[in-house]
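Before relying on records like the one below, remember that each one covers exactly one chain. Contacts with other chains, cofactors or solvent are not represented anywhere in the record.
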Amino acid sequence: MTDDKFKNEKVKLTPKTGFNLVAIDYFADSGEQLYLVEHFDMYQDALNAKKDRKNPEEYFVLYMGTGGEFFCR
């Protein structure tokens, strides 16, 4: 799976503040495969929620950096 495949979806789901836990729906149409699971105010809470999932590799934590850049972990 390449990062470019989900680039536009990641940008669309990245919050202005806080951290979004996002999952992949492999059965959805292309361009609509990512969906919001939960929003968190603290990065550690989002990271812990990702780690607690059955398949953590199918989840992303999306957030915006101080310079307006998009980050995905």
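The first helix runs from residue 7 to 13.
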